[in-house]
Amino acid sequence: MNECGRSKADQSLYGLLEPQSIQNAKERRQQCQQYIETWVKESQRQLYLGAYLNQAHWQLFVLHPRENTVVWFCSLRKKPDISIKGAINSAMKTITSSFEGMSNQGAPRWVEPKTNVQSGGFECGYYVMHWMWCIVTAGLKDDWHKWFSDGSSLDVEAITSVRQKWATYFLSFRKSSC
Q: How many CA atoms lie within 13 A of 24 on its CB side?
């Protein structure tokens, strides 16, 4: 995916948050918050994508620290649970206060674009993969409502395409790193 994203945006644009480090935010809120703060400070990317698993449902958030913005994607249109929202809000407050000219920032602005809505009970992971692919390959940084405004379900062809794109990416990555 990074190779695809590099063709439209430079390497410093996106960082990926490790799903296992942001899961179980209710029981591990402090560790989740600390992980986000540390990774953002160390990696120096413009945006961060986090695939978040909550009660067997995958969701996606995009952090844009310089804009003090969080973009939330959910294929069931659920709001972020209070634990992950609290961890992200606290982390963003710490992160933005370290930027020159951005001290005393309030809570980040949460954006929830009109996203595709899943029709079944198992496709949420494909929706997250679809959104991540769209964001990175298009080099998106803003205008979330412009890019994501289709509330329909992904059809079988779109889900098959997502599977094929990711399989191709992973196989090419495997071949290049062996």
A: 5
